[in-house]
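fyi for ur records
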Amino acid sequence: MKTIRFFESGVQSVPQITAWHLADLGEYLGKQKLYERQAPQKLKALKEHAIIESTVSSNRIEGVNVAPARVKEVVFGRAHLRDRDEEEVRGYRKALELLHTKSSALAVSENTIRKLHRLARGVIG
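which gave:
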């Protein structure tokens, strides 16, 4: 809330610490783009690992568990699902994928929330 008030007050300068952080972000963005060109396989492996960890951790909060040996296949849709837990893990992944690929086109609405909930619960349709 203080940030909005800060900009509403018409202050034209940016605090120096903010400028330093913005400069750091710009530097890291450049490094990321260089890494994307030089080591795409490593970046892909890191991205897959992050997706798996996020999916498993988020579902574990809800009491959903999948055997560690099957996690990768379940998350990326390469395995036949054995139980409700596996359906929910894959559904969560599909909801996450929708958010990552079409977030700018998704309206914050009851229908969007219902759609994400259906996906996350493993319900088709």
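The chain has six helices and no strands. thats all i got for now
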